[in-house]
Structures
1.
Amino acid sequence: MQGNEFYIFLLLASVYGLFILLKDKKNPPTETFTCARCNKQEKYSPRTINAWRRGYDRLYCYTCHSQWLKDHPFRQTAADTRGGCLSVFIIVVLVPPTIYSVAKLFF
């Protein structure tokens, strides 16, 4: 019974992986959309399809999107540069017990 937990975990991980791979991705109802800025009919691109899947209803053509990116440059904030101290702490706390548990299973 002791080795069965590992096989159960592998089975559950495999089922989850298959679910992710085989999940049907929704596609927009039409092949084109109207740009919310210039009212131009445009074909969906991977960027606009992902935006549509996330629920955005105001989609922009490539030209308008590029112009918006030029007008709004990325500004790095203090929150972006903190270094992830919480992540490092969680890794330091969780990795040793995990290694110990795995080593205990196999040895």
Note: The chain has a mean pLDDT of 84.
2.
Amino acid sequence: MQALSFQRPGCLVILVFQGPAERLNAVKTLCDSVEAPDCVLLHEPAGNPAHGFNTGLKYCYEHCPGLQAVFFLNDTVRPYPFFTRQMAQAFTLTGTDVVYAGVNYQREDGLNSAPHCPFSHLFLKNIIPAGSFAVSFDALQKHRIFFDIRMGRAGEWHFLLRLVEKGFRFEALRESLAEIRESPETGNRLSPHEEAAIRSYIRSTRFSIDGHVMAEMAASVPGPTPRSCGIRNRGGEQGRWKWRVLKKIWSVLPLRLRALIKKGYMRFTVAVDAFWES
């Protein structure tokens, strides 16, 4: 709660208490004693984290039509003071539906940064934990998406894949905007049943994926070698080197410049398509 009080722009806190009803008044007293932003306290008797997230989402759908975006925290996540500022800026500059960032993991041996993974890795494992992403509320309200309580610890991963399935656009930030008090291995470990359920969902679902994500996925898969093609390709290694340089340059560009480049590219491709169709 105190970490959220430092956020600028400020945020509305929907606090869902998952525990015995007789302890609800004690939780309310504790919340009132903390200098925090506006807070709505809700009670959810079920202990599954998906139940808690769904209770908060249901309240937002029914009572908070003016929200710009929503993000999800649990008791292991502490957002940094610039979390909402960076997220709001990314939404404004890119017009995307989901913004996600890096996180730092607090361990006994110190603080460790999780390595940045390409978005395509989301189909292999959950690379976007709770506390590292925000979702446009208008897009969520349109589809009224909830967490699937049957997915257990794979619920957050499944929720993100549902957003991809519905055509939500994702934008990555290289900065770490939150801290998590656990290790990536412990937090993402699934039971055999949960693993089988999420893999089955991925295999059986047709996803709506942006073109830049498809290009990223294609670039990460090694193509046939010149020997297997029966030709000599001296430019192959040079092409891969240029691609790595371009990706490095893109990662350090300011968000505003990246948005202008994307907009110009989209206008150029539309003009080319119109030329060939004429």
Note: Strands lie at 13-17, 39-43, 69-71, 77-79, 98-107, 110-113, 133-136, 170-180.
3.
Amino acid sequence: MDDMVKQSKLAIDTIVLSPWKRQQRLLFSDLHVYVETIYQSLETAINKNMNDIYGVYYESWIRVLADLQQNPINILYSKVKSEVIIYKEKDEFLKLYSSILRNQIQIIMTLVRNHRINDAQDAINTFLELKPHIDQLKPVYFDALLSLVISAYDNKTLGIGPLLSGIEVRFAADIESKEIYKWLFIKTVQENDVKNLTSAVYSLLKSTQRIQILANPTDIQTGLIHRMKSSIVGNAITKQSGQLYEKSTILLGEVILEAAIKSIELAHYGCTGFLIKFLITNIKSNILQQAYSNVQARFNSGTLMYSESSDKVPVNINGSTFDYCNKKLTLLLFGQQKYVVKSKLELVYKPESYINISTLDCEWIDYLFKKLDKAKSKYGLLFLEDDEFVKDFKDDVHFFVRTKTPPIIKL
């Protein structure tokens, strides 16, 4: 195997320097064989408990991967080897890169099956460090990352915790990572898995907050800023951080609203209650309103994220069901906002404006109230069990819907 690793590095270096297409393609053919053989040898070492051999050869192999992805060609040429290679042979390199990612996932899961959890964590870190700096590679990488997340979630030994801690640090500035979180939100809601749903939601919040720290450096101690900047690998978040933070926060609101709608459809009340409380507590009311409006607009435009979507993680809900679930969502959001304001709770973000409930259809209101009353103890939302508050809440809803008047917070 040591010879295969050396041959792989030599083939990569030769492709970088070679001006001849034929030679480059012949070397890519060799590289595919080398990669498959190296990973098969690593898997054999794991299965046969050859721990020392695995450790030595794995370290030598990841040095080759690091050299390919991270190291400049020389002191006079700042581009890394992968950038040069993809310019020369895009299709061949995409296939090679995809093969490396697929095999790396296989090694992770083999380590987990053999109860080598620390080694599996190291292999996960290697996978995360394979994140590309080249736009053409990002679709391949994030598809593979989603596959890894799916495998991790389905594996009770591994779980999503080790991946979440890496994703929230390394991919804070990557919009593509929101698809990963969206899959987790929808999956955990479908499974009525409040524990993992909570972990995933707070992981995305922490990822979003990393951008906020860099967008507002004067509010944070210099030492912390330095550490945060150095931890977001390959993403130099500069003066655009403020705009990126706002966009990321809106996306945070959107994917959680979509998960909440799905939880209402499935009558998974604990998931719904958690998501409602999170939205009101952790997202500014103007950002929440924007996210809410975006979700409505996507549904109303016919370019659905819901049943016939090109989205990688569709919510899979038909039009009439969405309409019902969305109305119930709107009532729950308004009720929680109103309860927080009335109770004068000390929260990260106190509502400064209410969600606009004036567009709700009058004929649905009493039916929705009956449905909420029937399951009020299952949501974990205090306002639904406060009879005096609920009476005022219902009166307010009827008034704002009947008069088509948006509710406002009286200061």
Note: The chain is about 70% helix and 0% strand.
4.
Amino acid sequence: MRADSLSTEPDSLPFTVYIDEPERLWADSHRAETPTQLIVTPVELHQRNIERRLRETDRPKSNLDLQSIHGVAKAVIKGPTETLDRLDRLALLRTVLDGECAESVQRLAQVIGTPLSAHVEDVEQARVEVALVTGFTQTRLEAFADAVTNTDQHTRRDTDDLLAGLSKLQATLRDRLEQRSSNGTHPTRALSETDLLTRATRTLVDNPDRWATVYPDIETLAVAGASMLSAPLEDFCRLVATTTDVDVELHLRAATGPAIREQLCSHPTVDDPGTQEVYDGTAR
């Protein structure tokens, strides 16, 4: 064990953090009738890398179940759920920006420019980044805004306008997809894989027994290959660790792991994970 490889934070983290120790993922690989360790990765490439390492070790691995993060999210959510691809998301966003007249969304124009529909890719990039950092939870949105409290008034006003506009836009996009689904014109769809994970977290909050129903034999959930830890993924890990009997492990890279671990220990705890809200900043 490396001196800085293992971090157990009993006062703040309900899961174990490993840094630069990928071999721990398969250290206990063995033959089993059913998998007991669920290894999830952000993208398929990481999954293939782990599978290659397992082949190189020439060890039995029937106790391991490798899945993508969004695959786990889809399994937790009841019913079929797909995600919009980027082109469909931009088309939906352009439709909303052309027709949406809510004040909060118009505040976004003060930061990005008018008309908003002419800046749809910039809006989408900003929405994606804020979703990853805050998950659109009120606690994190407020913490984001507070981080610039001591800057000049113009910067704080722009930050409030950006968060208010993007969070309102996020709610509008989500409602539009739900309306399409309820009307039967489209299958159940999520805005993105990030939103899919948020929906899975909400499912577990509302029905804590759902995890055991989907993964009755899993004893360890290991998240690997993440170069950054998004707010929705953090909430999901915390929830599984605190509401199930599963041991949760977070396996980080040497280059980014220490910074992620430090951020995890300093992040505010979210009281209602999986709930997205509209920021109501009042600075003008």
Note: Residues 6-79+195-266 form a domain with the Rossmann fold fold (CATH 3.40.50.300).
